[in-house]
Design goal:
The chain is mostly helical. It has helices at 2-27, 34-59, 61-78, 84-112, 118-126, 128-144, 149-160, 162-167, 171-174, 191-198, 200-230, 235-263, 266-285, 293-309, 311-321, 327-356, 359-365, 368-378. It folds into two domains: 2-173, MFS general substrate transporter like domains (Growth Hormone, Chain: A), CATH 1.20.1250; 193-378, Up-down Bundle (Growth Hormone, Chain: A). α11 (200-230) packs parallel to α16. The termini are far apart.
Length: 385
């Protein structure tokens, strides 16, 4: 259930990006402005994550997931209107849905998953993010072959509502402890952040997630451009390398989950992945026209496995450290840091390219923060006696 909803919200987040080449002209904006829309989506996701704990307590985590599905369906269907206002509505609905999923899913999965399989189960759920991207990349272009983009989003929105039928039976199991008298106060929006920041273990994990997610989004924003512009790869060859990195990211998530569960080394594993992605950044910075293609593919494969594969283990560890009954609140606060990293990474990387004229320097500089946060995870500061 959580995997399905994660996939749907991820698909909705990427729908504007997939539609931009064909819809931007009709709406009256430049396709290149899609980055601003993506930033808005992540901003809304942050806000939704911060208020999600109150929604979970009042309505139950399954009902909140149902709300996420309704937001996806409504946002997609509304985009049929074909103007900038409804596209902003789609982005707002997609961002809100995306922000609601992790706190609600973590609340359910912490209860449903045996401790010995927790990281694996969280990691499988997180494969919904790339799976949703694949759905957007496959289904939308296929629909555009037989109908206009307006009717494509309308059909997609209508189909999304079928998810409600699959989710409804889970209410009896996971919404039993909801408190209908619980009030939702916007004044409590800072509580998740304050709680995460006051807990040293949670704080170091959240800060690491901000750095790791900035590396992840920057890698897939600029990898193909790096290969084509500086290394003179063809579009097809660069696409193959890009796909290898993506696939390794998907495959590695459950693998890291199994390792974290079997060896009980979630924090150490997250630290090791930070060191690996830092080393991969240094290796990527060393690429030249003479670098063997096999070496570049190998580096990008390991880069994808480390920079993409950490999310499930991270969320499972956040849920494990959360005080009892506060998994949704803690996850919402932690995801603020994660989404902030995803939001700020590509613009910073782009600024480095603009200043230096080199993608390699960008990868080299982005290799440094993962090293620092990995060491912080491996050697946490001890409280003063």
């Amino acid at each position: 259930m959580t995997l399905a909803v994660q996939s749907l919200t991820s698909m909705a987040v990427l729908t504007p990006t997939v539609l931009a080449p064909v819809a931007a002209g009709e709406i009256g904006v430049q396709a290149a402005r899609i980055g601003m829309l993506v930033s808005w989506i992540y901003f809304v996701a942050i806000v939704a994550g911060l208020v999600c704990d109150g929604l979970i307590a009042r309505y139950g985590p399954v009902r909140v997931l149902e709300l996420a599905v309704v937001l996806v369906a409504a946002g997609l269907a509304a985009a049929w209107g074909g103007n900038l206002a409804v596209v902003l509505l789609l982005a707002t609905c997609a961002g809100a849905a995306h922000g609601l999923v992790n706190p609600s899913s973590s609340t359910i999965l912490l209860y449903a998953s045996p401790p010995g399989y927790r990281s694996l189960i969280f990691s499988i759920k997180q494969t919904g993010v790339p799976l949703g991207g694949a759905l957007a990349g496959l289904i939308i272009p296929a629909l555009l072959h037989v109908m206009s983009w307006r009717y494509a989003v309308l059909a997609l929105g209508a189909a999304t509502t079928l998810g409600l039928v699959a989710i409804a039976p889970f209410r009896r199991v996971y919404d039993r402890e909801r408190d209908s008298r619980r009030r939702i106060r916007l004044s409590a929006i800072g509580a998740p952040i304050a709680t995460v920041w006051s807990h040293p273990g949670l704080r170091s994990l959240a800060l690491a997630s901000a750095v790791y997610s900035s590396v992840q989004t920057s890698l897939f924003t600029y990898l193909m451009l790096y290969l084509i512009v500086e290394l003179d790869y063809s579009l097809v060859t660069a696409g193959v390398v890009f796909s290898v990195a993506q696939v390794m990211g998907i495959v590695s998530r459950p693998v890291w989950g199994v390792i974290a569960d079997r060896l009980q080394v979630a924090r150490q594993l997250l630290s090791a992945l930070g060191i690996v992605m830092g080393l991969c950044g240094v290796a990527a910075a060393s690429f030249t026209l003479a670098t063997p293609a096999a070496f570049i593919v190998a580096v990008c494969a390991v880069y994808g496995a480390s920079a993409v594969g950490w999310n499930g283990v991270y969320l499972a560890e956040i849920a494990r450290l959360a005080p009892q009954g506060k998994v949704g609140l803690i996850t919402g606060g932690a995801m603020l840091f994660t989404f902030t990293g995803a939001l700020t990474g590509p613009p910073v990387f782009g600024a480095i390219i603009a200043l230096t004229g080199s993608y390699g320097i960008g990868f080299a500089l982005f290799a440094l923060p993962p090293f620092a946060l990995a060491l912080r995870l491996a050697f946490p500061a001890r409280p003063a006696p």
